[in-house]
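re: that chain from earlier
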Amino acid sequence: MGGPVTVTDPDMTRFFMSLEQAVGLIFKAAEMMHGREIFILKMPVAKLKDIATAVIEKVKDINKINSEIPIDIIGRRHGERMHEMLLARDESINALETDEMFIILPDDSQVLIEDSEKLYAGVQKTTINTYESQDLDLMTVEDIKKMILL
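^ sequence. v structure.
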């Protein structure tokens, strides 16, 4: 039953968020926004093969499947990146951060930049240059399985 699951490159990394985290980010951003900011959740990172493995294991557990479901590595598609970047160096110039997110301010919004500490609770100027998936610790298959809703 099922399979194979195809993965482009097992070592590709992707940011990973749960449904609850995505909804929470939307509500938090709506509450905090003043106009044209970009809100980026600080998320865990996983390898594609680990995501596939976690999904396979969850499906097998739920459906009581004993047979193996193979993973086929099909290779990267044209233009597909090995890792994700959610905050680039030029964006970090206008970026703030809290414990849970980055806030990229519009280039032309000096008021937001100058008044950021008054406008956003618990914010500070970010100290990083980029936010990239290859720079962060990876989730384990067990961590991924805890976040997956099936």
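The first helix runs from residue 19 to 32.
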